Amino acid sequence: MREADAPQPLNVLFLCTHNSARSILAEALLNHLGQGRFKAFSAGSSPRENQQPNPLALETLASAGISTTGLHSKSWDVFASADAPTMDLVITVCDNAAGEVCPYWPGQPATAHWGYADPSAGDAADDEKRRAFIQTLHLIRRRLEILVNLPADRLSKLTIEKTARELANV
Asked: The whole model's pTM is what?
């Protein structure tokens, strides 16, 4: 098969409020697991000024052997512009972002909500937060491993939303 004939990867955008923990974990993990079938991105509905990925998120990813290269916090407005990559699937990973009015997404992508508790919330000791980040990464991995191993017909434009929403129950 010529390279030009290779199927385009599915673009998946993970959304959270600040784009510092859960959405960053999901972006890096899907890019790691996706093997070229998926291209993951992440953004936040309202990242704080000068927001950066949570250091414990980056530490957790690195400890799991997952690249953190290029990860940075950004607003979802970046992906609503005309020159942004067209998303096939948009997944909210926190309850705050799930309830917000999302911008118009070019191409009208499928949507789903996969809620995860915020591993950075509260004032727990760093060791307890590390365990929360590891647990969150494992929960995200469970759904993403199923997603990346689905047959192509379950990832078609017509069925991807139903498939992604079913995975919310896994």
From this structure: 0.88
